[in-house]
Amino acid sequence: MAQTFAKTRCALLPSCSKIKWDEAISEIVANAEDMVTSTRPAPIIAAEIAAELCRARPDAEALGFWLADAILAQKFRWPIPVPLLASQVLDPVLKSGERRRRIRPGDDEWGRAVMLAYAKAAADACDLGVELAHRRDRLLEVAPKLRSKGSGDIVRLLLNQDAVPGSWSNSKDFGARSETAF
Question: What rounded mean pLDDT belongs to the chain?
Answer without folding.
Answer: 78
